[in-house]
Specification:
Strand content: 5-15%
Distance between the termini: 24 Å
Strand order of the largest sheet: 1-3-2
Length: about 230
């Protein structure tokens, strides 16, 4: 099977960045999961304090299976924390929980990038699967129909790349809120913030890697179309 050597020029750098990001986030989380918070507060308790003081007593917190499967669901107003984050009184747990609580605060304040990302979710779920299929189908078809299909695939996948870019300010802002609130509300001390920063900064790198991968994939598609023309 033929593999375009040019593909690796576009795919390899962001792939290596993604692997490095995954290594960093797992390493930081595993390390600071072993460091107990001085206050003995768990991730769920930290999130509850932040939400209540932020005027969000209606947001529920529940455990969910899976490692680092933590997320905030703006539709049901539910903050779901992985089991390790939910119950453990560790630096890593409170950092991740506070980050997710930051998303709930974004939702309350009508933070524009979060709203835009939520609107884009249905289209992106389609584009991420259908875009590459249409693009490849278009390449194998001759004439204007093939070109039209290929460009349709590119346009769909462009939405995926845009979604990845919109995600960056959403995640960076949630981490910024988390870091500020953890100290201001006395959940962790200034000295403990070294561990929180290590975990959240490593997690942020995974989103940078995802955006880089989507953009480079899009550029690869455009490069192929340029050569085809």
């Amino acid at each position: 099977m033929y593999i375009d050597p040019g593909y690796f020029v576009f795919a390899l750098p962001p792939m290596l960045l993604g692997l490095w990001a995954q290594f960093r986030v797992k390493s930081a989380f595993n390390r600071y999961s072993q460091v107990r918070t001085q206050t003995g507060i768990s991730g769920a308790d930290a999130a509850r304090r932040i939400l209540d003081r932020g005027g969000l007593p209606n947001v529920t917190i529940e455990p969910v299976s899976g490692m680092l499967s933590d997320h905030y669901d703006p539709r049901s107003k539910t903050l779901r924390l992985s089991e390790d984050v939910y119950g453990l009184p560790s630096i890593a747990s409170v950092g991740v929980a506070a980050h997710e609580a930051g998303h709930a605060l974004q939702d309350k304040s009508g933070y524009a990038p979060l709203q835009l990302r939520s609107i884009m979710v249905p289209a992106v779920s389609i584009g991420s699967n259908l875009g590459p299929i249409l693009f490849m189908a278009g390449l194998f078809m001759a004439g204007s129909l093939g070109t039209t299909l290929a460009w349709a695939g590119i346009m769909l996948f462009a939405g995926v790349a845009l979604f990845a870019l919109v995600t960056l300010p959403v995640e960076f802002n949630a981490s910024s809120r988390a870091k500020e609130l953890l100290v201001s509300q006395g959940i962790v001390s200034s000295a403990e913030m070294e561990g929180v920063n290590a975990v959240l900064d490593a997690a942020a790198l995974t989103y940078v890697a995802a955006a880089a991968q989507a953009i480079m994939q899009l550029l690869y598609f455009l490069n192929i179309m340029n050569r085809r023309d």
